[in-house]
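Case study.
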Amino acid sequence: MLKLYDYVLSGSAYKARLMMAILGAPYEAVPVDFYPGNEHRQPDFLDLNPAGTLPVLVDGDLVLTDSAAILTYLAGKHDPPGTWLPAGDPARLAQVVQWLAFSQSLTATAGAARLHDMINRPLDVEAARAGAHRAFRELERHLTAQAFDGNAFLVADQPTIADIACFPYVALSPDGGIAHDDYPAIRGWLDAVKRLPGFIEMPGIHALHEVRETEPGVVAMAAEAG
Amino acid sequence: MSETVEKKDPARDEWYAVGISADLRPGEARETILVGEPIDIRREPGGAVIVSKSDGRACPVRERYGHVWTSIGAPDHDLFAIPEADQEGRVLVDVGAVRVRCSPLRAVENFLDIAHFPYVHTDILGAEPQTEVVPYKVHVEEAGDEVWATKVKFFQPQAAKSAEGGIVTDYKYRVPAPTTAILYKTCPPRPGEWDVITIFVQPIAEDLCDVWPWMALFDEDNSLAELIHFQQMIFLQDRSILENQVPKLLPLDPKMEIPTRADMTSVAYRRWLKRRGMTYGAQTAAA
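After joint prediction, the assembly is written out as follows.
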């Protein structure tokens, strides 16, 4: 069984939780007291991951400590059609890898600003926010071009692990004082990810509110009244 | 007439949590801001905690409920009591500060509100369509001058980390100080006892605060990390709502907002603040 060393407020841990939820992969969560306990800096945890970072995914003898590597493994193993990680299509695969690399700049800017604002981590927060806006403009331009081609996601015409890698720290950025107001294409993309079957929330990321089916009786009455 | 230097000010003359006791080891220090004033907190090699202002003047200190408490004024009362803190068998959980860009009073008021559970803590502390807040009792306890809400009942899909499946949870709320709220709730593994969940709010500015949640629970099944994660998940769901409330400051003028019956605790809290002259973080007249 997959084992995820997890922190509930971590956007990176959420990437793994979200991917496993979408793929329907069962796993065991091991909560790590990242804050305030600093458990990820204690000897037991450093034995598992000397870098002292979360999340960590363990499958038998395999230990993965990087969220892009975790997404690659999960999609490779638990998505038989192979659309989340298009390994058979070099052009698509290369674009996925490119966005996985891009996602690191989101963690370093928008993700860092969030930790600063939320748990008072020391940081030049204005520089982090400016960096986040630069990254968001790049993302906005790409998603606008995708939307012109009728595509809702980052790579070609299907959701991939690139979307899962970039989604959390963009969605969570208001927690760090970075609003989405200037980025209409990004807002549309966030909604598209939220509409994926199996989507789950985390604190700070709310699901789209369900539009409830109106009861047939009510419709009939409304029709009569009209 | 010139103003006296040490004028009575309810916001200054109050006790506030400013750090987790266990995080401050001998010889360590940290700086923070309390009610707009920078303070320095350090633990002497001998173990005593010293809090001082930038001019070097010492502030009163208490270490209780897992936290360091201090005041930048002169409190005329001791820190309030939480008798359950000393009860044998409880797990005491320091959850850690969460910074929120909101009025300290809004953070307390949100904690006292039950009606938001199904919408903000969906499928955990509440769920549609069970959104009704049944009538409950609110009173100001004269002896301690505290706001209490009692006989609160609410249906919850997962009331606590130790709860399996939905239960109707009984609640009591208590406001022993302007920026402290305590809730007592049904304790699934130990009927007859109440779990104690608090927020200690440290005002930094009128529209900025550090919130220190703290819990005293009966729970033998969950690890400390699991209990901390559960409470952080709940509080972080509130944070984005709190940061978007308008107006930023809590309105104390009754003409400003129209409360419903579910808001009785909030109404009593606002009146109580007004009577005490606690206006730091409040809006006293319609803008």
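Observations recorded in class. The first strand of chain A starts at residue 2 and ends at 6. The radius of gyration of chain A is 19 Å. We will return to this complex in the next lecture.
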